[in-house]
Amino acid sequence: MRRKIALFADVLEENFDGVSVTLHKILKNAPTDRFEFLIVTPHPPLEPHRLPHSIHTCKFIRLPFQKGYRLGIPGKEVQQVLDEFRPDLIHFTSPSLLGKFAIKYGKKNHIPVINIYHTHFPAYLKYYIGRFGDFLVGRMIKQSVMWYYRAADLTLVPTKPIKKDLMKLGVPKKKMKVWGRAIETGSYHPDFRDEKLFDLVVPKENKKVLFVSRLIKEKDMPAVVKIYNKLRKADKSITMVVTGEGPKREWLEDRMRKAIFTGKKTGEDLARIYASSDVFVFPSSSETFGNVVIEAMASGLPVISADAGGPSEIIRNKKNGFLVKTGKTKEFVRCILQLLNDRKLHAEMSEAARNSIESRTIESLHEKLWEIYEKIIHDYHSVTVITSRHPVVLRVTSSQGV
Q: What is the pTM of this model?
């Protein structure tokens, strides 16, 4: 019997951001003999026919402070669609109005509710309200956001450090499980290296330092500029390559005149950029996981990353890359120069980076997710006992079911 999964996805446009990339991988690989999906989203795929699932596009408003993003407004039509679908499990992706609707619908209808923790929202606060504002009202906002994860039956977090952060914010340990991220076998590899890729824009002898991200302030754009400026002073034969798109691109271009901006790239184009660069730098301190980090490592690039969030677990400092304390620009630059000037160290870290990612296959990760789906549905069997005045719900977790 196929299990029915209702997925509330705030963004489902292909390659829009890291969340949409993860969701597309899940939905494209979901075994249709085991699961039937109904997707509710305000931001559907540009090519919905590529996903073998039903999609309901709900009403939305555009977010003025987040260009391109939409806030889904679940109405009566969403209630009706769910009632007709009769899900066995509800999966939401963000602490939004859709997420709130998903939780309330699940509790009302005795359906388990889970989510994947994609974005470390508490770390984003300083970028929107400043450090002083974070100190004054941040606790209230954080607790408001954490309600979603306390209310859900299970939150899948990408790393142990993120799990510890959420525990400090009041999310019970028993309501969380580590479920990481992975890459599709062969998608990123050193074999994609193209020695002529940058010939028209970068002098042949120059080393290339790569940064890949959505170009938004939450990714700590000032840190990227500081690293660029110090690298230029240290060695003008180093070229910084920025791959990605976003509202901060023009701001970056004005401050990084000698850098190469490729725009947003996907698929094999992106794989060639990774493999054709020399090191990868990632100073963002707000990452729940950092998909770009494992993409770079799979491509054979040593990574110099902020020692925060997901990357702090992925990277083994001084083994397959470097971890640097947030804001320590000089240390970022020192590590970059050390790798670029020491061929033996670069080769050793490149091999170590690649080897450490080989076991993170999308196939094994997804199979773990399907098992989580099936187990929580099985364990959530409910029996409604009708008394003379009120229904009483008993949750049974017998291995034989009910």
A: 0.73
